[in-house]
Design goal:
It is a single chain. Helices cover about 25% and strands about 25% of the residues. The chain is of the alpha+beta class. Strand 6 (about 100-105) and strand 7 form a beta hairpin. The chain binds flavin mononucleotide.
């Protein structure tokens, strides 16, 4: 376990432990930086997919900014997020797989809830770089939150809702000089087993985030 995970780790059990079967502890992230980033039009111009990464880890502040941009709470009075979701279901959980473990991002507390203690990055995709990229995000739909939707609508809307989150990640990544690629090529059965997912949970996409190759 690298230093900062140990330093800011707090020994508390998840109070919102409804997302994944076992949540083992929480890590509070620093508040996101909401000022001074690249203008949106420049970020749109810079956004692209990269498949060559440095092994340099993401600093805690960058991870905080990234996850808030992805699907953080932007309106605390309602709990609504940076990404829209159909009928405000908020059914997509963002799982953060690092060398230290896998964590569910909890938007309400801006914390990481540990769900797996080991390194499952190699299981997050079928491309070689996923094993060493610092962060692989995995988007998991909790279909139980999509009340009264047909099976077809659950499939359609959970995929659409994931797309907004993934684009937020791309745009934050572009603005912060990060390397990013969204990925559909995932062994969902193997990864779902590693994450302890239930029948009501479905892996939609994964997304790798790090620094571009050559960054020290
Ligand atoms: C739904 C979806 C699934 C994708 N799956 C993969 C993938 O499994 N592996 C990969 O390397 N790129 C994947 N990509 C990235 C695309 O290949 C990439 O977006 C496309 O080539 C256009 O390049 P750009 O993102 O730089 O504009 C995926 C993109 C989307 C939107």
């Amino acid at each position: 376990m690298t230093g900062w995970w140990r330093l800011i780790g707090v020994a508390m059990m998840s109070m919102t432990g409804t997302a994944l079967a076992q949540e083992l502890g929480a890590i509070k992230l620093p508040p996101p930086e909401l000022e001074g980033s690249m203008p949106l039009m420049q970020a749109l111009k810079a956004r692209h997919s990269t498949r060559e990464f440095s092994s340099k880890p993401l600093p805690p502040q960058v991870l905080s900014n990234l996850l808030w941009a992805a699907n953080g709470v932007s309106r605390p009075e309602s709990g609504k997020r940076t990404a829209p979701s159909a009928r405000d279901w908020r059914e997509i959980d963002v799982i953060v797989a690092t060398a230290e473990g896998a964590y569910r991002y909890d938007p309400a507390t801006h914390s990481l809830m540990r769900v797996v203690a080991g390194d499952i990055r190699p299981l997050t995709g079928n491309q070689a770089f996923v094993a060493s990229v610092p962060v692989n995000l995995v988007y998991v739909a909790n279909l139980d939150r999509m009340s009264e939707a047909s099976a077809e609508d659950k499939t359609l809307y959970s995929a659409a809702d994931t797309g907004f989150i993934a684009q937020n990640v791309y745009l934050y990544g572009a603005s912060a000089g990060l390397a990013v690629v969204v990925r559909g090529s995932v062994d969902r059965e193997a990864l779902g087993a590693a994450l302890g997912l239930g029948q009501h949970q479905r892996i939609i996409l994964a997304q790798s985030v790090g620094y571009p190759a050559g960054t020290k």
